[in-house]
From TrEMBL:
PROSITE patterns: NHR (PS51065). Residues 862-871 have a biased composition (Acidic residues). Promotes CCP110 ubiquitination and proteasome-dependent degradation. By counteracting accumulation of CP110, maintains normal centriolar homeostasis and preventing formation of ectopic microtubular organizing centers. Gene3D superfamilies: 2.60.120.920. Its main location: cytoplasm. This is Neuralized-like protein 4. Keywords: Cytoplasm, Cytoskeleton, Repeat, Ubl conjugation, Ubl conjugation pathway. Interacts with CCP110; this interaction propmotes CCP110 ubiquitination and degradation via the proteasome pathway. Via its interaction with CCP110, may indirectly interact with CEP97. Interacts with the E3 ubiquitin-protein ligase HERC2 and UBE3A. May interact with MAPK6 and hence mediate MAPK6 interaction with UBE3A. Interaction with UBE3A may be indirect and mediated by HERC2. Coiled coil: none annotated. Residues 446-472, 842-879, 1296-1324 are annotated as: Disordered.
Length: 1324
């Protein structure tokens, strides 16, 4: 029994009290009203009939139900928006061209509304093309005189509108969440009404349910107004005295109140709803329903990738799991199945091409994210649906608390959405690869636990363990409206992060103790908003805190850090604090602590940033507070939370955990040079510099030149606030002693400031400006150095790619300048407020040159001091690369088209051209080389293997279709480019990975400073990415042509450079050319780039046509080296090298093929020295045999067939002059023209062309030949010669004679007969 107060609804029709035998109402309507009143317990104001007596109709208590005359009936005014068409006696309004236009659909009532009069409309038609929908309200403007706007919210006066779920007054939001219903989510057939009460309050009604007071003060004369905006196309005014309108309205109310039960109670004779879940017959254009509604498919899945939406035949009950099994997939498309729920009834829904296009009442899981009304609300929610295969299952369930959960193969993925209304229909979108799915019954799924499961909120492997840590600090259960607490109170996140940016304040569950650190780690960010996390403390208890939009709105007892600003009670009290919260990214740790003195300290990644503010009330409890604002979405409490060491709790200076102040040990710690500005004094053995007077004359230099990737870093120790400006630092080619000894010395001395140092090239950063020789090069670089405080660290680094980087508090600000010279010193200017600094960096331990891996910027051939023993040492050291563990294998988590075999050491892409990402199971260790071999290529595709590293945990990473789609914590090598998070950061690095043939071995190595090196066939291509965060995992994407790779373990001894049969048995001469030209003569077995080089094969066939004795040439694999475009890029050869004494440049023979000759065994090793220069000599085919037989570079043109036989050692071909030989002629032979570049030596005037027919292809080609020789001074001495062959595909350069000093060509006497030649070349 219901109580008498509940048995009568608030708006029970007055016609029940009349003596007209219900003249204007049917009995069924009265019964329906009574049932609804009992169902709602009187809690809802359900208006099912005409207005009650006494409200707008007088208080006479008429015996009959009033029926308005046509003159009094509310209609739409004839004057309306430009696209509106009125019909049905002006009761219906429709927006024309709804698929082309979304606005200009404003209509108003024909007269003002009376007090307590209901103005109600029914939505007749919607389209799903636009976002936003109907808006309704009142306005004081008379429609006769109003110039109608495009949309009513543009009107800036006299207008109150409901839009979405909020209220706008004069176009500005006054109530953000007026009701739980949103107008954007209403369906066709729903009713919307409004009334102005006699007390001036405005109420809105949705399907008869009063949403409460929208505004308490409404002008007395207002017109009803409807804006047919966006999806809303057609509406009709509803009059309660119309029987048909009443029935439609009552059905809409029943549906809103109880989508399942109420309809059966109102119509008990209706057919019982089927228990079994089926697919509704109304489905997408390209979809079909079979097997009695249990199976949905796209019959032509290879022709179309969308229009495959199917819905359940009935609404889901609370806790009911809707689950489907993927029966069939196709590999033609990207993307796959999507699943979710919608409030739309499938019987009336105009199905879109894909469900994510629907802009109302829809929640979908797509890929590994969740979308609501077409907008992403969770980026990384759970298992990636795009990686599922045939046989996998996906499901969805709505719990009683309104949370939505998804299942993959029976495992819950956690909460995906909150406040999902009841009565939603399940929806499956057979998109892309998904071709067929079947509903699954009675499949066990893991129960949804009562506490919010982790799902996407799971703490990453780098985050604190939920069970670890001894601190009881957690997030309080009270928090902002958009915040969610999970993981046992250790994790906080902001849901709807792409549609909401605030209202996500979380606070600690208890007050902080003195010296206790509260530390969190940022786990997730979005790039949609400006601003980021804000953190601080408050003396307000969580129970007393009315959570505002953002914590900086609180005006008492609150201290917050926002960006770099310290704020107290909402007011900025200090700018330019030592850290910037807006600059932090995923993985950064933020801590806060109140000391016993009442100081507030912040910690970034464990480093104390110093006192942010002081004077926190010592006797008052303070709680840690975090505002998940803007870009910051999710944080977790770390294990570092808890009491800290007493020294840290009371210290006011920054700690030096990561950057210790090294003791001045000779050869280890950096020092300042004794040459410095006149106001500078050096202390503590040259590790501390103090400006004793003034504000200028504070230049200091590093003692030694900076090596590649070496950081010179100082800490600010003392500031003098009376001066303006900033510390300046950079790199200079000026040796510190060149301008005088400085203070107290003689000579010109140093300029007063760094911008005036222009005698030698100097690059510097001042404030946030980059200058070269005082000239402005760039503005707004990095953090402003004027913001440095005591304890701040600042450093400079010269990159291996000839760039200058500035580091502030350990954070690299990126390249400030490029083209930095090789020999540079660090230079600082103690200018303005910075009075003293101390060095906190140290040099790397002294190493032999050979132990340092070569880089693109290294110039190994220019060191004239090195002797032969140094070369040997360099050879051995160059390959001293750590060996990878034998247990290395690929992770089980990989792209869906990958099949692992050979103990997970071989990865094969078994389908399509993508979805082939694999990751090495162990993180990269410095100096350990990780290599894979390309086993198989499929030439039907383009592009090929992609190599790189990721710094996020790969075990739970949902891999995209290709590595280039990784948008965070990824550095990739693709083609010849270097990419970071999908953006190219470097071009033309190393060889083109797309041209690597089968058998090529590629590898990655981290050096001791964190630089990432690429290795190809054992050759280090240099630093691709400096300062890679650690730990990181090597990643390989089997993309395009690359279909199979295998992890390679180096053979024993590889670390010492003695690979079997390769560099271990190199002769000294091989080292000279092999190492100095960065050529790996002995690539791993079956991995030679020459294996598939057609150009090299053609050159070899031409050499065979010359019938030259094989004994002239070195045996394989040292016989030849190809310099065609593909081969030289694969090795990463530089265009020029330096050699000889003094060092001179020579060009590598790009476009030619070199065949190496044997060295005369009688030649003394001492003649093989790098003091000799490298040069080329153009020749012709007819003279090749004679030159080889005689060992003489001459201008003769005798035919090979006419050459006289010569004495020589058997099998060698070198002539030894006999004892009775005639003495040589007195006259000098004609000069031999040599050039350090084949651009000139290979000109047609010096190296004539000859035509020949390729015996394999029968095509005609032209060839040229040239010799490569070593020469010393004016005497050309040949220690080895090679014959090169180049096919003439480029424009020929005409040889121009020049003097020997210009480095192009020179004339030299012919070498002595009997001296071995160096190299032989041809070109076609």
């Amino acid at each position: 029994m219901v109580s008498p107060a509940q048995a009568r609804p608030e708006t029970f029709p007055n016609s029940l009290e009349s003596h007209n035998d219900f003249a204007s109402m049917e009995l069924s309507e009265v019964v329906s009203n009574t049932i609804l009143s009992a169902y709602n317990g009187g809690l809802l104001n359900v208006n099912l009939s005409s207005p009650p007596a006494g409200e707008g109709l007088g208080s006479s208590g008429a015996a009959t139900s009033p029926i308005l005359t046509s003159n009094d009936a509310l209609l739409f005014h004839e004057k309306c928006g430009t696209l509106i068409k009125l019909s049905n006696n002006n009761k219906t309004a429709e927006r024309r061209r709804p698929l082309d236009e979304f606005n200009n659909g404003v209509v108003m009532t024909n007269r003002p509304l009376r007090d307590n009069e209901m103005f109600e409309i029914r939505i007749d038609k919607l389209v799903d093309k636009w976002s936003g929908s109907i808006e309704i309200g009142v306005t004081t403007h008379n429609p006769n005189s109003l110039e109608y706007p495009a949309t009513m919210t543009n009107l800036q006066s006299g207008t109150i509108m409901m839009s979405g779920c909020g209220i706008l007054t004069n176009g500005k939001g006054t109530r953000r969440e007026y009701c739980e219903f949103s107008l954007d989510e209403l369906q066709e057939g729903d009713h919307i009404g409004l009334t102005r009460k006699s007390n001036s309050a405005l109420h809105f009604f949705i399907n008869g349910i009063d949403q409460g007071v929208a505004t308490p003060l409404t002008p007395p004369v207002v017109y009803g107004v409807v804006d047919l905006y966006g999806m809303a196309v057609k509406v009709t005014i509803v009059h309660n005295n119309n029987h048909s309108d009443r029935l439609r309205r009552n059905n809409a109310i029943l549906r809103a109140l109880s989508p399942e039960g109420a309809l059966r109670r109102a119509a008990p004779a209706a057919q019982a709803e089927p228990e079994r879940l089926l697919f509704h017959p109304n489905c997408g254009q390209k979809a079909a329903i079979t097997h009695e509604g249990r199976t949905a498919l796209r019959p032509h899945a290879t022709d179309d990738f969308n229009h495959g939406v199917v819905l359940s035949s009935r609404a889901l009950r609370d806790g009911e799991v809707f689950q489907v099994r993927i029966d069939k997939m196709v590999d033609k498309w990207a993307g796959s199945i999507e699943i979710g729920v919608t409030t739309h009834n499938p019987a009336y829904l105009q199905l879109p091409s894909t469900m994510t296009n629907l802009r109302s009442g829809t929640w979908m899981m797509t890929g590994n994210g969740v979308m609501h009304n077409g907008t992403t609300i969770l980026d990384e929610y759970g298992h990636n649906l795009d990686r599922l295969k045939a046989g996998d299952t996906v499901g969805v369930v709505r719990r009683e608390d309104g949370t939505l959960h998804f299942f993959v193969n029976g495992m819950t993925q956690g909460p995906a959405a909150w406040n999902v209304p009841p009565g939603v229909y399940a929806v499956v979108d057979l998109y892309g690869q998904a071709a067929q799915a079947t509903i699954v019954d009675d499949v066990e799924v893991s129960p949804v636990p009562e506490p919010l499961p982790e799902g996407n909120n799971q703490v990453s492997p780098s985050s604190p363990s939920s069970g670890a840590g001894g601190s009881d600090l957690r997030f309080h259960q009270l928090h902002g409206s958009n915040a969610v607490i999970t993981n046992g109170g250790r994790t906080a996140l902001r849901h709807n992060c792409r549609s909401e940016f605030n209202d996500a304040i979380v606070i600690s569950n208890r007050a902080l103790r003195d010296g206790e650190l509260f530390e969190i780690v940022i786990q997730k960010m979005v790039d949609r908003w400006s601003g980021s996390i804000e953190a601080g403390v408050t003396a307000i208890r969580p129970e007393d805190l009315e959570f505002p939009n953002t914590m900086t709105d609180i005006d008492y007892d609150t201290w917050m850090l926002s960006g770099t600003a310290i704020m107290q009670d909402g007011n900025t009290m200090r700018n330019n604090y030592g850290c910037d919260l807006d600059a932090l990214g995923t993985g950064a740790r933020i801590g806060m602590m109140r000391t016993a003195k009442g100081d507030l300290h912040y910690f970034i990644n464990g480093q104390d940033q110093g006192a942010a503010c002081s004077g926190l009330p010592p006797g008052k409890e303070v709680y840690a507070v975090v505002d998940l604002y803007g870009q910051c979405v999710q944080v977790s409490i770390t294990n570092a939370t808890g009491p800290m060491d007493n020294s840290l709790a009371t210290s006011n200076t920054a700690t030096e955990k990561s950057f210790p102040l090294h003791s001045p040990v000779a050869g280890v710690a950096h020092r300042f040079h004794s040459t410095c500005g006149k106001n500078v004094t050096l202390e503590e053995d040259g590790t501390r510099a103090v400006r004793a007077a003034g504000y200028a004359h504070g230049l200091v230099f590093s003692t030694k030149e900076l090596r590649a990737e070496e950081v010179f870093e100082v800490k600010v120790e003392e500031l003098d606030e009376k001066w303006a400006g900033s510390l300046r630092l950079g790199l200079t080619t000026l040796a510190p002693g060149e301008m005088g000894p400085g203070a107290g010395g003689s000579g010109p001395g140093l300029p007063p400031s760094l911008p005036e140092l222009r005698t030698k090239t100097t690059w510097m950063v001042s404030s946030c400006e980059v200058r070269r020789d005082g000239q402005l090069q760039r503005m707004n670089y990095g953090r402003n150095l004027e913001r440095l405080g005591v304890g701040s660290r600042v450093g400079v680094r010269r990159g291996a790619d000839d760039t200058m980087h500035i580091l502030v508090d350990g954070e690299d600000m990126g390249p400030a300048a490029t083209g930095i010279a090789k020999n540079v010193w660090a230079v600082l200017d103690l200018y303005g407020p910075v009075r003293s600094v101390s060095i906190v960096s140290s040099t790397r331990l002294e190493e032999s040159e050979g132990t340092q891996p070569p880089s693109p910027s290294s110039d190994t051939g220019s060191e004239g001091e090195e002797d032969d023993e140094g070369e040997e040492h360099g050879l051995g050291g160059q390959n001293e690369v750590g060996i990878i563990p034998t247990t290395l294998e690929f992770l089980e988590n990989h792209g869906k088209n990958i099949l692992l075999s050979n103990g997970n050491r071989t990865a094969t892409r078994v389908a399509s051209y993508n979805q082939g990402i694999v990751v090495i199971n162990q993180p990269l260790v410095p100096q350990l080389l990780v290599q894979v071999r390309i086993d198989f290529l499929n030439r039907q595709w383009t592009s090929s293997l992609v190599l790189g590293v990721i710094t996020c945990a790969p075990e739970r990473l949902n891999f995209p279709a290709s590595a280039c789609a990784l948008k965070r914590a990824a550095w990739l090598l693709r083609g010849r480019g270097v990419f970071h998070n999908g953006l190219k950061i470097c071009e033309k690095f190393g060889p083109n990975l797309d041209t690597c043939p089968e058998g090529t071995i590629v590898g990655l190595r981290l050096d001791s400073s964190g630089g990432l090196h690429l290795h190809v066939n054992g050759v280090d291509q240099g630093v691709a990415v400096p300062d890679v965060p650690q730990p990181c995992h090597a990643l390989v994407d089997l993309y395009g042509q690359c279909e199979q790779v295998t992890i390679v373990n180096p053979e024993p001894g590889a670390a010492s450079g003695k690979s079997a049969g390769t560099q271990g048995d190199m002769e000294k001469a091989d080292m000279v050319d092999g190492i100095k030209e960065s050529v790996c003569w002995g690539p791993p077995p079956a991995a030679s780039p020459l294996k598939s080089c057609e150009y090299h094969a053609l050159c070899s066939r031409f050499r065979e046509l010359l019938l030259l004795p094989e004994d002239y040439f070195m045996p394989p694999p040292k016989r030849s080296l190809c310099y065609c475009e593909s081969c030289r890029k694969l090795r990463g050869d530089e265009a020029h090298r330096r050699r000889g004494e003094p060092p001179r440049e020579y060009a590598l023979p790009f476009g030619w093929c070199r065949f190496n000759l044997r060295v005369n065994p009688r030649l003394e090793a001492g003649t093989l020295t790098k003091k000799w220069h490298m040069a080329y000599h153009g020749s012709n085919v007819a003279a090749v045999r004679r030159v080889l037989d005689r060992g003489e570079l001459g201008a003769g043109t005798a035919s090979i067939l006419s050459c006289r036989p010569l004495k020589g050692e058997p099998g060698v071909g070198f002539e030894e002059p006999g004892e009775n030989c005639a003495p040589p002629r007195e006259e000098q032979p004609p000069p031999v023209l040599l050039s350090p570049s084949l651009q000139y030596a290979g000109a047609e005037t010096l190296a004539s062309k000859v035509q020949f027919r390729d015996p394999k292809s029968q095509r005609t080609h032209q060839a040229q030949v040239a010799f490569q020789v070593l020469e010393l001074g004016s005497r050309a001495g040949a220690c080895r010669q090679a014959l090169r062959c180049r096919w003439q595909v480029a424009q020929l350069h005409v040889w121009r004679p020049s003097t020997p000093s210009d480095g192009r060509s020179r004339g030299s006497p012919a070498p002595r007969p009997g001296t071995p030649l160096h190299a032989l070349i041809w070109g076609t």
